[in-house]
Amino acid sequence: MFIDFQLILYICNMNVVKQIELLCPAKDLETGRLAINYGADAVYIGAGKFGARVAAANELRDIEQLISYAHLFRAKVYITLNTILYDHELEEAEALIHTLYNMGSDALIIQDMGILEMNLPPIPLHASTQTHNYDIERIKFLDQVGFERIILARELTIDEIGSIRKQTNAELEAFVHGALCVSLSGQCYFSQAIAGRSANRGACTQACRMKFDLVDANGKTHYKDRHLLSLKDFNASAKVADMMQAGITSFKIEGRLKDKSYVINNTAYYRKLIDGILDNSHGYCKASSGSTKFSFDPDPEKTFNRGYTSYFLEGRKTEMASFESPKSKGKLVGKVNQIYNDHFLIEANEKFANGDGLCIVDENGRLQGFNLNKAEGNKLYPARMPNLKPAQEVYRNYDKDFLKLIENNKDRRKIAVLLEFSEIQHGFSLMAEDEDGTRVDLTLETEKIKADNPDQARENIVKQLMKTGDTDFIVTQVEVKTTEIYFLPASVLNQLKRQVIVALLQKRMQEYPTPVAQQSVNQVDYPRSAIDYRGNIANKLARQFYSKHSVNAIDPAFELLKSEEITGKTIMTTRYCLKYELGICPSKQTAANRLPEPLFLKDELRSYRLKFDCRNCLMKIVLDDKA
Fold it and tell me: From 220, 317, 514, 618, which residue has the greatest number of CB atoms within 10 Å?
């Protein structure tokens, strides 16, 4: 009996069943295809302009190729147009949006509200996390003005996500893995203030990853040359099921600047994780089709990471930051046992290889890395002998064998197909039905020759039709429905099978649904009547949008301010709090040692005053005069 794909589709499309999406980064066409191949239900990629990662821009022809590949698997491609726009860019941005829609893009991820005032095609809009999706009133506003999806701030707890779900109708997307911006997204002006490079324009210098001194009101330095704002990477893998229950339907991996090994490893890891949850849950199904059998065991700790934190998912915790370095720390692999002049012994259950990269945190709290010239079991010979201590923890941030396995593997995503070989009056027919219910029938007019050995002939028919070779399909079942068992040469069967596979592929692409957004026109009021520079309003259409929604006072974006106007302004707002991280929060901790305030961060050029909004549990960084 055939698996009833139509019944499965009906159940998955019922309103009571939610499609769960794994959304992965695409730096370029190659990494986008790899993400799809290893299980992504959707990818997000930057076009040539107006994306929040200027280093990850792509040619339109590459995006078009990625769209075609993704749609084969019913996966989606979202385009990041999530920078703020200047007046002279509006016309070009609008033209680009129409081009992207005509190419088949499934949605736009945007930050600038001026886009809603454009003459748009019916393309779905996703509110970028840079639209500051932390405040419930603003989230409700975005929901009401027509966004199909809202990408939530990383700082939210699971309970806060659940509360948002109860008060909104739009789809909710949340980050599940990758680098963390220490600032509330869209609310960081640090890079623009010190380097003239705007994070909201895709040119962030990652000032938060730099070294700072922490200085108190008396001028005493408590931490020197430490990465005090550099957060560990986000890993919510242990909470995916809880996030799903809270209302998240799209789980996003950060990393449009990461290499292909990061994308392959993490996509495969979360694909397996989510599939395991779906297999044991009611009311959910996968958002795309096809599957991949992995030839390796994915492990997020074996590709780029700064150590992991679940951030605020379960509430405020310490050890969110990585003071020692913003570089990859990798996986904890063991402890130093014995130390010799040119090698050391390690207590570990891992295998090591010549060329591995290891690191330690030294006595000064700084990350020190070194490569292995030679590995003989647990006897390791570094290229340069570091200053090791007995029982010191050792991390591996370059696993040579694992990365080689990932980059050289030939795993392939395949779409399940059922074949039915039937008899017609003047020959035979072959029907193919894929897992999405797409069906094609082809006929072969030929002489019918009864088989001398029916069992062998039947086996040959099934065997030949099961072979799919280097195609995007895998035949999971063949039914032979004939009155007699006939002999057919393998070449005839293979030709018929190739033709039906080509026809099935063409029909799948023809049947891919064109996304159509319901553009809403409404007069819902914005929750505030005045917006300062943190509203990121940099063009006339954005001002027009907010004016329509009852905002009376509109300040220009930070990027439009003169240099003399930025001193004294808050250049970062963050839920991460240095006082809490250091154990000296007066509200939530009982440490006896308090530092004289105000506190300052200092670099080689400037002093940045820390302002603590304890009522809302936020830390702000204010740009002071040059030190």
Answer: 618
Which residue spans within 152-191 are E strands per DSSP?
171-178
In this structure, whether the domain defined by 325-408 belongs to CATH 3.90.470 is answered with no
- Residues contacting residue 305 through CB under 8 Å, at least 6 positions apart: 232, 233, 235, 328, 329, 330
Select from 30, 26, 33 the least CA-distant residue to 47: 26
CB 533 within 8 A of CB 555: yes
- With CA atoms as reference, report the closest residue to 248 among 10, 80, 19: 19
Other beta carbons within 10 Å of 374? 15
Tens digits of per-residue pLDDT, 547-593?
Answer: 999 999 999 999 999 999 999 999 999 999 999 999 999 888 876 67
Cβ pair 309, 234 in contact under 8 A? yes
Residue pair 26/256 in contact (Cβ under 8 Å)? The answer is yes
* 158 φ/ψ angles, rounded to the nearest 5 degrees: -65, -40
What is the architecture, at CATH level 2, of domain 17-179+235-298? Alpha-Beta Barrel (3.20)
User: DSSP assignment, residue 321?
Assistant: B
Provide the CB-side half-sphere exposure for 205 (13 A, CA). Answer: 12
Bridge partners (DSSP) of residue 553 are: 530
Element (H, E) at 334: strand 331-339
Model confidence over 260-279: pLDDT tens digits? Answer: 999 999 999 999 999 999 99
Question: What pLDDT, in 10s, does the model give residues 202-259?
Answer: 999 999 999 999 999 999 999 999 999 999 999 999 999 999 999 999 999 999 999 9
Virtual CA dihedral for 573, 577, 579, 580, nearest 10 degrees? 160
Return the SS3 of 488.
Answer: coil
- What separation in angstroms does the CA of 36 have from each of 31, 53, 301, 525? 9, 21, 21, 40
Instruction: Give how far Cα 492 sits from Cα of 96, 344, 445, 499, 519, Å.
Output: 48, 65, 11, 11, 52
Map out the domains of the chain as residue ranges: 17-179+235-298, 325-408, 415-511
CB 307 within 8 A of CB 325: no
Report the distance separating Cα 607 and Cα 597, nearest Å: 14
Which two structure tokens, joined as six digits, stand for 538?
Answer: 């940099």
Name every residue whose Cβ is closer than 8 Å to that of residue 234 and which is 6 or more positions away in sequence.
154, 175, 176, 177, 178, 179, 180, 254, 308, 309, 310, 311
**What global pTM score does this model have?**
0.95
